[in-house]
Predict the 3D structure of the following.
Amino acid sequence: MKNVIKHIARATVMALIVLPVGGIRLQAQDISGGAGRTEDIVGGVSGLVFRRPDNPTPQRLSVASQKERALERAGAARDAQSPRYSEAEEQYRLAARLDPKDPRPRAGLGNVLLDQRRYAEAVEEYNRVIKLEPKYSSAYFPLGYAYIALKRFPEAIETYNQLVRLKPEFAEAYNNLGYAYNQSKRYEEAIAACMEVIRLLPETGQAYMQGLQMKAEVLSQAYKNLGFAYTQLRQLDKAVESFKNAIRFDPKSVPAYFNLGNAYFEGGKYRDAVETYKETIKLRPNLAVAYYNLALAYLGLRDKPSALEQYEALKSLNPDMAKELYAAINK
């Protein structure tokens, strides 16, 4: 039984989401290339910090030029209650034609394309901005995000490294850099980046906000990324501590609880894993992978009846996963 459990438990989930790249067994989705199912357990790109880029600011002139008016109209179209993306795109392109050397229209166009998840096109525009003005720091953060959305992790790493050279106290950039390092299996570097976030955002002092991201949110994401890196390096005590800190800053974080359960499981602490997966299910009652992993933790405790209870609950949520679980229980 113990060998079966260990075989199934080869994966831990990033507590972060999407950009899945996974494989098999311990239905602990892994998005960094290891084993595990790849279901998106919370939606979006958790573990990454994202702020909607601001519109480029038109110059306030007594008599506004056609270019500045185009920038103003584009920003208004993008910011409308129902964004008028076609109009915004048209106005930014007009401004770019009027002054090809001004990086602002290209930055605005990149933002509009990013809003629409047209990531490859957004990358082209942000790179044009940087070519025009290498110190245009506002282009680097969304560019790195777009690269990650395209799974172009080496380029994302290069972009975020350039950004922190320009803005050494940009905690959100270090967080996303840590995420990209994890995706590239560069775990030691991921740890260093996440530790920089924690250094920059001490728990005392004024509440931190950058855009829409509160200090607690950024710290929670950093600790999730940190926990994932430690898990992959088999430093499980540090992984547990990191995921607990993520929960402390975001008590309703489903990925943090789920990954904490996986870290306990990997360390053979099945009773702790059971309690943590139960907390995960309280927060997300329809999360099929949590029932699967809870059943495996029960098997680690040699509690087959409780494992079968999870199988019964799983049947209505994910019949295929339930079938796989039943086979594991009865090996």
User: Anything to note?
Assistant: Residues 2-46+212-329 form a domain with the Serine Threonine Protein Phosphatase 5, Tetratricopeptide repeat fold (CATH 1.25.40.10). The beta strands are 209-210, 213-214. The chain has a mean pLDDT of 85. The chain has two domains: 2-46+212-329, 52-150.
